[in-house]
Write a structure and sequence with these properties.
Blueprint: H1 3-34, H2 40-68, H3 72-99, H4 110-117, H5 119-131, H6 139-165, H7 171-199, H8 208-229, H9 239-267, H10 284-288, H11 293-296, E1 300-305, H12 311-324, E2 328-334, H13 338-343, E3 349-355, E4 362-363, E5 368-372, H14 376-386, E6 392-397, H15 399-406, H16 408-421, E7 428-433, H17 440-448, E8 452-457, E9 460-465
Parallel strand pairs: 1-7, 1-8, 2-3, 2-6, 3-5, 6-7
Antiparallel strand pairs: 4-5, 8-9
Helix pairs in contact: 1-9, 2-3, 2-9, 3-4, 3-5, 3-9, 5-7, 6-7, 7-8, 8-9, 14-16, 15-16
Length: about 475
């Protein structure tokens, strides 16, 4: 199989999940509407949707547990699974009572209590996801966000609670009927905030399907409430299809997110560096700076390069030196860049390729990891996964491309994130930067982020500033 055939085959495999998802939605819709003359069938379809979602969530959580146990990501998945399992149990209890009419159904029923309980782990999952953002918001931004969300909360509360309050029922019944819309309001606010974070690239696009699912569920709840208040609701009402769509999207979202997280963990689960103490040491890079390798440990180096020079030689010297000292080498670079072409195919290197066009993390046959170049959150998650290695050499190629891709502010945030992540360690990090591609103010600011400053021009590599 040649390279073109492998690429086409890979695309087919990657699109299989999307094809299954869209086909399922179409079939569910068709069967649901054909089943309208038989009242029991729409309820069965909704239960099948909830059951499939629960099974998918359990499978993904088990896979994620093996790779992300005790991490915040694992808590997100386990909470989502508990939530959808409770919703499924509630649906089964509700329909069991309907199918076996001998049960005396009182309100609030056990199904209502189980369903409402599901809001708590779902809210916890979204709150945990909210805290995973690497961006620190200012107090002013937090206050403005609080005011905006407060106004939205009041508006939604008025819209959702008005038809329920107009029913004039007792406190016990009213309490549980209010719990649904109030729970939906809080979930909607969480989701809205997370969507804003995705828009600002503080979270990855991989979470978007999971966030759209509660919005569809909110629309379904809202439609159900108004249909019941107006007396137009009936068994098999088309609004039930929205709940099924919400379940299907939830299953798709947790599958995609779990697959991404598992891919990251799997990629970094193996240390490519088969270090042997008898290996000959290669200190070419450090010697060119008149340093020993031990003096390089713990330093963050800014390498300003001239694109016309052979700066790739210096990068390759550092890679070989780090490997000879038993360090795990992680290289971030653009796919097809000079550094990629130079290091591609070499063993014992974690090569992270930043690619254009939205792509979920993909582990290639060449032991390369592809991630979306504008997915700031995914970059930080990738960096978190690499700290499991005892000794690290990190290379960023290059800050110039990152500034053009994710913006100047996020590039600076990434530099700061790496500094905090590797603080106190003996990790070596090298950031490449082309100063001629930027205004002087940007160049001065970038230089100010580093205490070690190197230059590689047509005369070769030299140190401008090295701290003792």
């Amino acid at each position: 199989m040649n390279e073109i055939q492998k690429t086409k085959f890979s695309l087919i495999i990657n699109r299989k999940t999307e094809f299954v998802f869209m086909t399922s939605i179409a079939l569910i819709s068709l069967i649901y509407f054909l089943a309208q003359p038989i009242p029991i069938l729409p309820g069965i379809i909704i239960n099948i949707g909830a059951a499939v979602t629960t099974v998918v969530s359990l499978i993904v959580t088990i896979r994620a547990t093996k790779k992300t146990y005790s991490s915040p990501i694992w808590r997100v998945f386990i909470s989502l699974t508990i939530a959808i399992s409770l919703f499924f149990i509630a649906e089964m209890i509700r329909n069991a009572c309907f199918w076996f009419g001998s049960f005396n159904i009182t309100y609030p029923s056990l199904a209502n209590m189980v369903s409402i309980t599901g809001y708590f782990p779902l809210a916890y999952a979204l709150f945990t996801l909210l805290k995973l953002s690497p961006i620190t918001r200012s107090s002013c931004a937090k206050f403005i966000l609080f005011i905006v969300l407060g106004v939205i909360f009041l508006a939604l509360a008025y819209v959702l609670l008005t038809p329920i309050l107009s029913l004039g029922e007792g406190f016990n019944v009213l309490f549980f009927k209010l719990a649904y819309p109030i729970g939906d309001i809080f979930l909607f606010l969480f989701v809205l905030t997370l969507i804003i974070f995705i828009r600002k690239a503080w979270l990855s696009l991989i979470w978007l399907p999971l966030l759209i699912s509660p919005i569809i569920e909110l629309l379904a709840e809202l439609s159900t409430v108004f249909a019941k208040a107006s007396g137009t609701y009936f068994d098999g009402h088309p609004v039930g299809l929205l709940f099924t769509f919400s379940y299907a999207l939830f299953a798709y979202g947790i599958h995609k997110a779990g697959d991404c997280m598992t891919t990251l963990k799997t990629y970094f689960s193996k240390d490519f560096n088969d270090f042997n103490s008898k290996m000959s040491l290669n200190d070419t890079f450090s010697k060119s700076l008149k340093l020993t390798h031990e003096e390089l440990l713990g330093k963050r180096l800014l390498l300003e390069f001239d694109p016309r020079s052979k700066y790739e030689d210096a990068v390759e010297d550092l890679v070989k030196e780090a490997l000879s000292h038993g360090e795990s080498v992680i290289v971030f670079t653009q796919k097809g860049s000079n550094i990629h072409q130079r290091l591609s195919g070499q063993s014992r290197i974690h090569l992270i390729l930043l690619v254009e066009g939205f792509i979920t993390p993909k582990h290639t046959q060449k032991d390369e990891l592809l991630i979306f170049s504008q997915d700031f959150w995914m970059m930080t998650e990738t960096l978190k996964n690499m700290v499991r290695f005892e000794k690290i050499c990190l290379i960023f190629d290059n800050l110039t491309n990152m500034i053009l891709s994710i913006g100047f502010q996020k590039t600076c945030s990434l530099i700061q994130f790496v500094a905090e992540l590797m603080a106190g360690s003996k990790a070596i990090s090298l950031f490449l930067f082309n100063p001629k591609a930027h205004k002087a103010t940007i160049t001065y600011f970038i230089e100010g982020q580093f205490s070690e400053h190197l230059v590689h021009d047509q005369k070769g590599l030299k140190a401008i500033k090295i701290s003792s």
